[in-house]
Amino acid sequence: MNTSAHQVPVAIVGGGFSGAAVAWHLFRLRPDLERVVVIEPRAELGRGLAYSAADPSHRINVPAVRMTLMPDQPEHFNAWLEASGRLDGDPAARMPDGRNFPARAVFGEYVHRMLTSLGPRLQHVRAAAQDIEPVEGGYRIICSDGSEVLARIVVLAVAHVAPSPPSLVDRALAGHPRYVRDPWATDRLETIRPEDRVLIVGMGLTMADIVASLDRLGHKGEIVAISRRGLRSRGHPAEAHEPYGDFATEPAQTVRELVRRVRETVRAAAREGKSWHCVLDQVRLQGSAIWRALPLAERARLLRHLRPFWDVHRFRIAPQVEQGLDRRLAEGRLSLRAASLKTVERKGETIEVTLRSRRGARVDTERFDAVVVATGPAHGRVFAETPVLALLEAAGLARPDPLRLGIDVTGDGHAIGADGVARTNLFVAGPLARGTVGELMGLPDVTNYAIRVAGGVATQLDARIARKPDLVQASG
User: Fold this and answer.
1) CA nearest to 46, candidates 107, 119, 103, 100
2) DSSP class of residue 128?
């Protein structure tokens, strides 16, 4: 064995929120565990990509009272936030109605502190997992720092891959000083000058974050955002509400039936003076039941036709960010268009773009000083773009799900190999399981699924202890 090897009962690959939630709840279920290893290259566990954002203008997208590591204590984060003093330096985080929308990094700090409270039982290997090999009784994980981890059970909690820029944009603008192909690298936005005319390709939450960042950086020029349908992410209702409707009892078997029931429920809610928000919240909460009831062909139809509409209603923007968008729209410094790219050409540092309008097929040629890609995570490329997943696929231990949303898993989170057999000691946590599980992009959904995975891991540990108790004791 490598002298820097760790032998543990459980190793979690990925230390963002998904991996952190599994670790936290696993220790709640099995407080007797001596050690769990989390393999994560970032300096702090619990932040991941979403909650590492240093930009203070990037805020959580739901009120703090709905963000928690512990669903049985729904206001745990909000109570921590109020007691921590973090709001003192960010008065804009508190809305007039008392709801709090702090910077995402603050939520990352909360999760990190919760994990730190577990003490040395939770060991952070600050490295990337380069390979996962099956060995007798478990897996060997080879890490980028030269260490190895031998684990009986492995939980994959890997992150999304970066957005995939349109190929014609990438080819034309490679090397341009104000071409930002990865919107998550927010420091690149600093290359955009105050008066530059900016094109953002994409119109979801990422676009809203980019506009907020540019506002913070003092940008005054015009921004044009495009998407094929021209749909903008919606905001939150004026007042808090309870979810409305029932979609889990005798769930719809077809997309047509589902849409009909949602529309009828929205109309019923309106008659009671309620907004559509409460209906869509219920759809989200019952999303797993809805998804399981749909045959594969209907799931594919839903993704093909309804996903953009679902995304803009489900994934809402913080009020502060929404106000910034509304202000720019009113001032004429932001325009949102239903259009697609036809040609992109670099002329010196000027970028000439031909846009085809979705309505009327009108074609216009315009000039921009900067282009930012905001097309969202490229879920379909996760195996190709994540080396450790590519190696697992090559070894037949894991495979993409049929809809190419992530990793194929059973309903309780076991990875399914090339032979169609579930791996009882290899779990998948986080949004990459959503092809099977359903709605897994919002934090409450990720948390509840992490609890389910932690329960499955605890069950496996109990079974292994009954067979070979000596093999699950931490050592080295």
Assistant:
1) 107
2) -
Encoded tokens for 436: 């099977």
Q: What predicted TM-score, i.e. pTM, was given to this entire model? A: 0.89
The residue among 316, 314, 338 whose CA lies nearest residue 225 is: 338
CB 141 within 8 A of CB 101: no
Res 410: pLDDT: 95
Q: What per-residue confidence (pLDDT) applies to 4?
A: 60
Q: Using alpha carbons only, give the angle 425, 430, 432 rounded to the nearest 5 degrees.
A: 90
Average pLDDT of the segment spanning 361-382: 86
| 138 beta partners | 135
What CA–CA distance (Å, rounded) separates 322 from 335? 14
Q: Quick check: 81 and 100 in contact, CB under 8 A?
A: yes
- Is residue 84 within 8 Å of 19, Cβ to Cβ? no
- What one-character-per-residue DSSP string does 404-459 give? SSSB-B-TTSEEE-TTS-EEEEEEE-SGGGHHHH---SSHHHHHHHHHHHHHHHHH
Return the H-helix or E-strand segment holding 314: helix 307-314
The listed range with the strongest mean pLDDT (24-33, 50-59, 465-474) is 24-33
Structure tokens at 442: 């919002």
* DSSP string over 139-181: EEEEETTS-EEEEEEEEE-PPPPPB---HHHHHHHTT-TTEES
DSSP string, 79-114: HHHHHHTTTTT-GGGB-TTS-B--BHHHHHHHHHHH
The H or E element spanning position 463 is helix 443-467
DSSP 294: S
CA 464 – CA 83 distance, rounded (Å): 42
How far is the C-alpha of 211 from the C-alpha of 58, rounded, in Å?
Answer: 10
- Reduced to 3 states (helix: H, G, I; strand: E, B; else coil), residue 342 is strand
Instruction: Give the span between the Cα atoms of 251 and 257, in whole angstroms.
Output: 9
Which amino acid would we find at residue 24? W
Classified as helix, coil or strand, 190 is helix
Where are the extended beta strands (E) located within 284-384?
Answer: 334-347, 350-357, 363-368, 370-373
CA 315 to CA 313: how far, in whole Å? 6
Q: Exposure pattern of 351-368 as b/e (b: 16+ CB <10 Å)?
A: bebebbebeeeeeeeeeb
In this structure, are residues 415 and 397 in contact, taking their beta carbons and an 8 Å threshold? Answer: yes
Please give the Cα distance from 214 to 57 (Å, whole number): 9
Span 404-458, pLDDT tens digits: 999 999 989 999 999 999 999 999 999 899 999 887 777 888 999 999 999 999 9
